[in-house]
Amino acid sequence: MYFQAPSTVVGQVGVAVAGSGAPEGDKSQGVEGAFLAAIAPATDTTCHYFWNFVRKFRREDADLTRALNIAHVNGGTGVYDQDHVVLEAQQKAITANPRTPFYNLNIDAGALWARKAIDRMCAHENARGSAS
């Protein structure tokens, strides 16, 4: 995973046959790809969520390409619809309970680090703005 503050995440994903030597060794029997997720604020409670996925397996398979690219906006159930559903549910919970603190679990370490980086960027920007 790679986080480019304030709003872009890039990650590599893959699976391999047990005993094939992956991740360092032979990945030819597995599947491998990369994703990009970029988020841009729209309002105080909404955002635009852009994503892309590229793969190194079954690239000639047009049916798989269509299945991976079906998005919520055209009525499908694409691979990123789960993100859309979770993000909307999180925003509803935050709106309904604005003073409830976030509970950070070990699995949330990356997201916690990203929020802290964004908070530092905002504080720096606000300090520069008040100094001028």
Question: How would you describe this protein?
Answer:
This protein has 132 residues and is an alpha+beta fold. 36% of the residues lie in helices and 23% in strands. The protein contains 3 helices and 4 strands, in the order ββββααα. The chain has helices at residues 62-69, 81-96, 109-131, and strands at 2-4, 8-15, 31-41, 47-55. Strands 1-2-3-4 form a 4-stranded antiparallel beta sheet, with no helix packed on it. A hairpin with a 5-residue loop joins strand 3 and strand 4. It is elongated, with a radius of gyration of 19 Å. The two termini are 37 Å apart.
The fraction of residues in strands falls at: 15-25%
What distance lies between the first and last C-alpha atoms, to the nearest angstrom? 37 Å
What is the H-and-E element order?
Answer: EEEEHHH
| Residue runs with pLDDT of under 50 for 5 or more positions | none
Described by the principal axes of the CA atoms, the overall outline is: elongated
Please describe the biggest sheet, giving its number of strands, its sense, and whether it closes into a barrel: 4 strands, antiparallel
Name the assembly state: single chain
SS element count, helices? 3
> How many distinct beta strands?
4
Output the strand order for the largest sheet.
Answer: 1-2-3-4
On the 0 to 100 scale, the average pLDDT is 80
Q: Measured on Cα atoms, how large is the radius of gyration?
A: 19 Å
